[in-house]
Design goal:
Blueprint: H1 16-33, E1 49-53, E2 56-59, E3 64-68, H2 70-73, H3 82-94, H4 105-117, E4 124-128, H5 131-146, E5 150-154, H6 163-168, E6 184-187, H7 202-220, E7 225-231, H8 246-257, E8 260-264, E9 288-291, E10 303-307, H9 309-314, H10 330-345, H11 348-370, E11 374-380, E12 383-388, H12 406-417, E13 420-425, E14 428-431, H13 439-459
Parallel strand pairs: 3-13, 5-6, 5-7, 7-8, 8-9
Antiparallel strand pairs: 1-2, 2-3, 4-10, 9-10, 11-12, 12-14, 13-14
The structure holds pyridoxal-5'-phosphate (PLP).
Pyridoxal-5'-phosphate binds next to helix 5.
């Protein structure tokens, strides 16, 4: 493990000794008073993070870890980017806050920069505090625009933790929150490695998934659907890059039946796939885009909905019945402006694309060829999944859907032991570093992952 000497100083100026003392107190208070997301409270041991810089974080013991998790896949420009830190400080000194009904320069500029990067005519931006509320509002806009209620969303998806968003979600986090009557109809999307359509190639998978979706819509009553929501590239559910033609086919179905197409880009947006928005890899323009996470690299919470001219016009002379106290908060919007400008000025979106095609993608494919425990690697840009299996022939996952396993836990422990912080979900490890990661940092991450996969191979 990459430990830091006691005498060393962390990037935030803390000595390792002081950081350790602070971390011990932090941990104690956390366990006494903090109630964590998605967890059985008595069973968790949260990692304390005391410092971060670029692609690295330091834990409470002073260990330096290469961040391949983007935390929750949101630090798209890495940690503590000086231009964004300075912009937040400058905005705090200038004007910390205003109510959403007033106009504010940071919000106006953030809206312009975002709208300019969306495909098509998505020229209006409604700001929210994060991703789930962006999804809630996108669905509400679609329902009011169409006068319909039902919404289609795919299995193997995540759309957020609030009521509508969690009911739209197609993963096990929905089960304890499922109202069944929330107006959601789930469908299987394309995922060739675990095909629901007995397909043997991407073209078949795409064609059959589209045929099935259209039939489902007809059987459910085509005129009852307000929207289809789908992650342009599903993230937490497994980074299943859609096959060529699939998203264009969904767009056609939406047009045919008057259904609003919502692209959830909360995780895949803002450079992660090597484009500003993931849907731009597929040449498709949705009606609404939800975003959050990478828009500020997570430095200040912000989310939003980019709205087509047609849907925005619905609310020209009719009040939009929704809002938030902190919609377009100046500190968050200043962080968004600085993040987008830093990404643009430093060529981070292009770097993410190159890293995916020339460094991380090939490196992960080499690991797949070498290790028996790897069933498939897939992804693009800095958005990759390594699917671990107990058996390459049967494709039995190394941990069950919705669960973990000792083998998976040992791989993850080995990664951390050797200085790598990956993102993990069920039987998958996701390599989702910052868009500005360097080739050397990727090589370092791949070396540690290689050694950790040996542990899983040995367990088979
Ligand atoms: C695709 C997608 N949509 C929505 C959300 C919810 O975002 P938030 O946690 O900011 O509410 C997430 C979070 O991971 C996500 O990945």
């Amino acid at each position: 493990m990459t430990t830091t000497q006691d005498t060393a100083t962390l990037p935030n100026g803390l000595s390792v000794e002081d950081a350790r003392a602070e971390a011990a107190r932090t941990y104690e208070l956390d366990r006494t008073h903090v109630f964590h997301s998605w967890s059985a409270q008595a069973q968790i041991k949260p990692m304390t993070i005391v410092a971060s810089d670029g692609s690295y974080v330091w834990d409470g013991d002073g260990n330096k870890l290469l961040d391949f998790s983007g935390q929750l896949v949101f630090t798209n420009i890495g940690h503590q980017h000086p231009k964004v830190v300075a912009a937040i400080q400058a905005q705090a000194a200038k004007l910390c806050t205003v109510a959403p009904q007033h106009a504010n320069d940071a919000r106006s500029e953030a809206a312009r920069l975002i709208a300019e990067r969306t495909p098509g005519e998505l020229n209006k931006i409604f700001f929210t505090n994060g991703g789930a509320d962006a999804v809630e509002h996108a669905v509400r806009m679609a329902r009011l625009h169409t006068g319909r209620y039902k919404v289609l969303s795919r299995y193997r998806s995540y759309h957020g933790g609030t009521d509508t968003a969690i009911n739209l979600t197609g993963d096990p986090r929905r089960y304890p929150n499922d109202y069944a009557s929330a107006g959601v109809v789930h469908f299987n999307g394309p995922f060739l490695y675990r095909s629901s359509f007995h397909a043997e190639n991407e073209q078949q998978e795409s064609d059959r998934a589209l045929e099935y979706l259209e039939r489902l819509i007809q059987h459910e009553g085509a005129s009852s659907f307000a929207a289809i929501i789908l992650e342009s590239v599903p993230g937490t559910a497994g980074i299943m890059v859609p096959p060529p033609g699939y998203l264009a086919g969904v767009r056609e179905i939406c047009d045919k039946y008057g259904i609003v197409m919502i692209a959830d880009e909360v995780m895949a947006g803002f450079g992660r796939t090597g484009e500003w928005f993931a849907i731009q890899n597929f040449g498709v323009t949705p009606d609404l885009i939800t975003f959050a996470k990478g828009v500020t690299s997570g430095y200040v919470p912000l989310g939003g909905v980019a709205i087509s001219s047609e849907i925005a016009a619905t609310f020209d002379d009719r009040a939009y019945p929704g809002g938030l106290t902190y919609s377009g908060h100046p500190l968050a919007c200043a962080a968004a402006v600085a993040t987008i400008n830093a990404m643009e000025d430093e060529g981070m979106v292009a770097n993410a694309k190159r890293i995916g095609s020339d460094v991380l993608g090939p490196g992960l494919r080499d690991l797949a060829a070498k290790h028996r425990c790897v069933g498939e690697v897939r992804g693009l840009g800095v958005f990759w999944a390594v699917e671990l299996v107990a058996d390459q022939q049967t494709r039995e996952p190394l941990a069950p859907y919705g669960g973990s396993s000792p083998a998976m836990n040992s791989v993850l422990a080995e990664c951390k032991q050797n200085g790598l912080l990956p993102f993990a979900n069920f039987n998958r490890i996701h390599a989702v570093p910052a868009c500005n990661i360097t080739d050397d940092e990727v090589a370092e991450g791949l070396r540690i992952l290689d050694a950790a996969l040996d542990v899983a191979d040995a367990a088979l």
